[in-house]
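Example (one chain per record):
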Amino acid sequence: MSIDGTGLVQMGAAVRRNALAYPDRIAYVFGDVRLTWPEVDALTDRLAHRFAADGVGPRDHVAILGHNSHFFPLVEFAVFKLGAAALILNPALKDRSLAGQINHADAKVVVTGDHLQPHIEAIRGSLGAELYYTWDIADETPETLNLARPLARDEPYEPFPIAAVRPEDIATIIFSSGTTGVPKGAINTYWNCCAKAISMALDEQYQRNEIGLLVTPICMGGTQLMSLWPYALLGMTAIIAPGFNPGDVLALIERERVNAMFCVPTMINALSQHPDFHTRELSCLRRIVSAGSTLPIEVFQRVKQRGIDVLELYGTSETGGGIAMPCEQKPLNPKSVGRPMVGFEARVVDDAGRDVPDNEPGEIVMRGDCVAVGYYKQPEIQADTYRNGWFHTGDIGRRDDAGYYYLMDRKKDLIITGGLNVYPAEVEQVLYEFNEVYECAVVGLPHDHWGEAVTAFVVLREDAEATGEAIRARLHDTLADYQVPKAVVIVEALPKTIFGKLYKIQLRNDHAGHYSKV
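Predicted structure:
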């Protein structure tokens, strides 16, 4: 007897299973809206019926554009029930980039909400899509179908026959955030999605009776892979935050008794330095999953001192994970990002793809069932990134003789100054030890003598007083002379993406002429 996997990897089926297994459990909370799993199953069935009646079916590409709300997962899981592919779009994109991604991904359908329809109207003439929908109840845009009726909880319906899918069918196309260059549309098959959800649920140590928080943008690959899918797989309750405001998020955690959440390090830093961090009742919060960049040790220690565990996870938009440091091991080895997760293999290699000795730096590469199969219609980039059967992360790291991995920096962020290599993350770790430093970023800027000059941009805490030169002088106590920034620039804020990640490309572009002015 052979099993080909058809129908066994349907993420939409998780919703149906949760409705049967947990008929009284809340699935999603957004503001005053509270939906049980049976209600989510019914609403996604209604949406799937509506899409199917309009000619949307298996393997069609459906673009979803919206902010954080309960509508986003409802549309996404309806797309999965159809056996179609969800194109996850970033609402922060300019209209031209939005049109480029929609057309590049061959979207047949565009679904919008949260008052973003004007962006679609501005580019509709250049799009190849055939159908347009909105989940905004009051939206009356011509030739745009309103989903108010299928989203009405009292509307009669029949259970939707969940489509059987092949493991290789595309489930999602998620474009990278673009913090490292040209956005790439990573293809996650239905098998990838299933494997990722299982791997994340296991290694992020989620439990089916927990309450999880969705605070990073749902359009972010990390949110999809590390929160939305594993929460749904386990039948957890998800609290959806409309955006990130540290005080509001801390209040939401207290009010809804949140047990677990995924954040990027800049968010964790902001939460841990907010006055309410020490006054809110946070005993419910068991752990924070940190991913997106290296978590500064100082930030980890602040969270741990509050009695909250931290699980650090390393991965990319394509892998969604790959290496994880469990909560119980993190305090024993706080500099490491852990060992390979379920469904992943990892190595550290040189530029020729050969393994480097333990404790020597090289590029981290990964492979496994969880890794996206490639990029949609970007064969050159795919061939360069997926070499010799391994996904090349573009990140520099090392592995010790016990198999623990350490992230040093991105290849593209490496600074070569006077012929010597400087890893910005090492300098940033030291800066975060200074009490007056709220946030920092280190980049290389053009310099006539050094080629690239190590340059630190620092945001001070509200009550702090310090000069860039004073901070720079203290760095000599810890760093080698060539690692010490040629300048420490005090700024009011650092540029970030919608996902909360530091946007070093913009920082380098905005200050490229810094040393020509000195």
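Caption: The CA atoms of residues 384 and 392 lie 8 Å apart.
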